[in-house]
């Protein structure tokens, strides 16, 4: 009886779920050829110094120009690439392109150009044995100093990380590569744990920036951000904030002591030429 009662429910098709599953499957199987055919491209979003408004660098954000579906954001395909392992060659491609872009900026604009490049790393890349050597090779081939590179790792990827996982990050940090803890504040990590991690930058999650939207901002949120910033600074970590959409947020976060900001208020992610323009305006005016 139970079976027949439940039977109907299971037979009810959800066409939208089916379409999603098909797309998911379709996208997953299309990933390797997409990488070979050069369907991925990178947009860059400037990182701006909150004190003087200068462009200090840019974050590389990958996109997929899919022949049927148009431009897909990373949230649509990075998880699929992680499931299939394609994230390793894809991530290496992103790193190589971004580091070369940083070299081009520097060649064209010298110290007036964006100085640093931030690249996101998946947890799977962290556990891949080639990470350190690939990074060294890519920097050397492009003639870019490790100090110009910042690798972003999410807080959740490092929660409970053992020494084996931290070893490659530590080696990169010793070479001079900055490691940033991305989406900080969403992962419930133990703040005291920060001392153990080879990170030099905290990227405060967009949810904190959003709570600075109202004026005056929620006093509890203000206290939390203030506390995080002072803890970070006392550990010699720089604080970057993501998702800054208004001047009021930027001002509030500057007053709270954040160092660098990123968000639509300054610029949406865009082609590398846009960075040229922003940096140029910045260095001349
Ligand atoms: P993320 O590293 O935290 O990157 C910030 C995200 O916030 C980006 O979304 C960016 O476009 C978006 N954003 C920037 N400013 C604003 C703003 O003012 N308001 C709002 N609402 N959003 C803003 P995007 O490009 O869709 O990337 C999403 C995530 O995908 C990234 O989050 C990162 O975790 C991942 N991702 C992107 N590129 C790569 C990559 O090359 N490799 C890996 N492993 N992950 C990547
Ligand atoms: Mg990031
Ligand atoms: Mg982030
Ligand atoms: Mg985020």
Automatic annotation (TrEMBL):
The protein's name in its UniProt record: Diguanylate phosphodiesterase
Stretch of the intact protein here: 427 to 711 of 711
Superkingdom as given in the UniProt entry: Bacteria
Domain EAL span(s) in chain numbering: 24-283
